[in-house]
Amino acid sequence: MPGVQMMFSFMLTDMEKPIRIGKHCLQTFVASRPSAIFRSPQCKNKYNVYKTRGKNKDKDGGGNA
């Protein structure tokens, strides 16, 4: 059955709307444009929040020994 689903998904996509894996959520999606890397605006926002928190944690925790 996964093979049938994969073939169907290839029928829905082309070079304009490729199948992608979300940069943060790692879920597959049909991109609305060729350069899309996030599944949704919410996914992009979560990625940016985690990235920012990671930078702040490195700055706060690095010099207190």
Beta fraction: 5-15%
How confident overall, as mean pLDDT? Answer: 81
What is the CA-CA span between the terminal residues? 56 Å
- Total of DSSP H or I helical runs spanning 4+ residues: 2
Largest sheet: 2 strands, antiparallel
Using the alpha-carbon principal axes, give the shape. Answer: elongated
Number of strands: 2
**Could you state the order of secondary-structure elements as H and E?**
HEEH
Question: Unreliable stretches, pLDDT < 50, 5 or more residues?
Answer: none
Strand order of the largest sheet: 1-2
Rg from Cα = 17 Å
Characteristic terms for this protein:
49% helix, 65 residues, two-stranded antiparallel sheet, 2 strands, elongated, mainly alpha
